[in-house]
Amino acid sequence: MVEGEGTVEGSLTKTANGLAELIDRQALQSKLRAFAEEAGGRGGDLKVRARVLSALKAAMKDARSKVEKLLFEDGSGTACASRLSDVQDELIRAIHEFAVEFVYKAENPSSAERLSIVAVGGYGRGTLAPGSDIDLLFLLPYKQTPWGEQVVEYILYMLWDLGLKVGHATRNIDECVRLSRTDMTIRTAILEARFIWGDEELYSELVRRFDHEVAASTGAEFIAAKLAERDERHRRQGASRYLVEPNIKEGKGGLRDLNTLFWISKYFYRVRSGSGLVKAGVFSRAEYNRFRKCEDFLWAVRCHMHFLTGRPEERLSFDIQREIAIRLGYTQHPGMKDVERFMKHYFLVAKDVGDLTRIFCAALENQHVKHAPGLSRFFTRLTKSGRVNQKHIKGAPDFMLENERITVAHEDVFEKDPVNLIRIFALADRENVSFHPEVLKLIRRSLKLINAAVREDAEANRLFLQILTSRNDPETVLRRMNETGVLGRFIPDFDKVVAMMQFNMYHHFTVDEHLIHAVGIMAAIDRGEAGEDHPLSTDLIKTIQNRKLLYVAIFLHDIAKGRPEDHSIAGARIARRLCPRLGLTASETDTVAWLIEYHLEMSTVAQSRDLSDRKTIEDFARIVQSMERLKMLLILTVADIRAVGPGVFNGWKGQLLRTLYYETEPLLTGGHSQVSRDQRVEAAKQELAEALGQWSDRERTAYLERHYPSYWLRVPLERKVADAEMIRAADKARERFAARVATHAFEAVTEITVLAPDHPRLLSTIAGACFVAGANIVDAQIDTTTDGFALDTIFISRELPDDSDEFRRGNRIGELIEKALRGEEVMPETVARKAAAKGRMKAFRIEAEVLVNNSWSNRYTVLEITGLDRPGLLFDLTRAISDLNLNIASAHVATFGERVVDVFYVTDLTGQKIANIGRQEAIRQRLVQAVDGEEAAPPPAKRARRTALT
Q1: What is the pTM of this model?
Q2: How many other CB atoms are found less than 10 A from the CB of residue 273?
Q3: 493: phi then psi, degrees, rounded to nearest 5
Q4: Contact 295, 257 (CB under 8 A)
């Protein structure tokens, strides 16, 4: 093993960290010595110990304050981590010296009464974050003695009393060597061992024996274990390095990945520092400088996180991202917030860490493959003869396959023809092979060859379109193009969104990762692999006349994110400029631009409009204009929502999209029946009458008069039958309250229908009960019967996988709703208590906005309310609407991360739209107050009864 501290630049020689200004150990020791001498040399006296501890705490607090100040001044993360490590070293040395001189002084020490204090783990690398654990190895010559046990105990208790989290082991050299042979964690810890204080000969003996007896013959084994450990860590943290709340330490592209490279380099190449990797041919000087910059940035972020939160916080969550951005000096630019600029820098660094990992593995493979053929995970697979298997690719003389990985036939292949920088990716997709690590290095070093001439080259654009529209695995190939920098160079507009994050809880990935993932989902639908989840999209894509337009549109749909203007409009403008370059005709370009400009329209209408309202469908059909566009927009919408992140798309959203599609289709094909509204109502009544054939004629006739036209037109037959049976049973039992539960596994929702006497606060009470029960309402339909009852149907998000379990959950929620309606549960107080316990999402700021619109429906005024989501919001909104003496006909709840869009179709108490401008303004003001959680004015003294919706 080679000595050295664990940062890439580490060595036993201290860097110029201003240590003398941080903590003066000699002055500190003099102070501690004075405490003992004042007590007659009795350092173990409890009063002396208390004074010693107080002095140590003051010194540590003062030093850490200075370290944080220096971090703000010079911004160096590695210097900060090293300074904190140095401070810790000095404290441990001071404690040890006081212990052996005044507490457990050995007058005639034997050879066994020796002790070496060794830093291991992250501390062994000479770097600490403010909240890091202190990992120590107390090294003994051969066995523990009472003196050694007492000294170790004293040091540990002092460190614990200082508020430090200490990991420790007390072992002799033989134990260290033996355990490191069988335990990879212990082996890694000893690899990073760094002498702090005590007997240095013991430490040197450990280093010598570990190097000769453990490390010398186990390089391949160590590398395989560390890479496997890294893969498992990535799996736990999330396979993508572009998660919007990354783990700065353990996540993909984080500090632990750099640590892994250092461990392997120290073990395999026997280097003392990062510059040794340049001499070993692993990194070029430029690549090594990138390594140092990445490490410095990640350490700066981590140290700021610990200082800010006062705890070892490793997850860069939304709650602290903005404050960290401010601490690091980021400012807001047009189209991008300060926090978004900071996070873009973070993701670019994470991308660089991934590049460096591939470069490092390529060097291991090229230099040591014949010595370590067993590392098949990253090393070349050899033929039985031990030779590399190479063959040329048919029709591509500039490229060849080496052990089923594509590489170049000669070094100047890209200089000779820069279009080869695109062609190699097309070949990799065609041959379904991965890339040789060395060729990825060569590609990155050749990026400057992609200039305007290459971008306008017809063959280069044809090859790119071939990659983009491939039915094989375009997602993986595009991701490789992005990671090497080719994609951003070839499509400059794409380069602007590389590593760009959006500061919200809705999008799980950076913009570039979202676009690439969306292409992958489109390809999966195209291959028929998503039939169970997206049956309509899977069927429709087979009928699309020009499938390449879908791929181009999905690839470009968010390419204008981060600009001051609407990204849909700006993206359409980019498409009009870029599509002709890709070889699309004028009409094809127009279709792609339209899809991009309206790529949010179908999702918005489906989730926040009443799809049973004919005006909604007519307005949407007027925008779409053709069946081909409708089909493409549906498929594009599904792929876009699915690519936002896991769990964002669900069966309920799919059902809404399918409903919108099926309702719009007749208008676009000319097949919509032009029968009058009255005729359609009568047809619906007759359909139900036939379904209730077991009822008597008198019962059927009476029941058909209990509903208003809106009910007959929007409720499906299956639900009409269930409603009829529930109301009939309630009548026979003389019950005024009834509830019915139905689970919908495919749509991932549970339907709860409530029958109760009509009341202005009915929906508000239901919303409050659902909130208290932990149920999330996604949609609601409100109907009133002619005899004064309300029939409200709500749809809540499904939580349990088993239908029977979910059905029982639905019944429990129904029972709570019934208790609330009977007055047995006081909703406002209960909701207030639970909302206070949950708190708000303080990291985000969204200004409340209320739109009062009379043009979206022929019969209702539509209230669209946008704002920051919070516990109990729907309850407060429905209460406010009730206070405003408005009838709710339907409610549609959509949540996009922290942003909520709630839409209510309402009328006044006479069943009319809200036409008065003054009243519209009063509604806006009151609902903005409700979104912000402000107390409303007392409701009118006269409680208005909700009238029927006609």
Answers
A1: 0.72
A2: 20
A3: -65, -30
A4: no
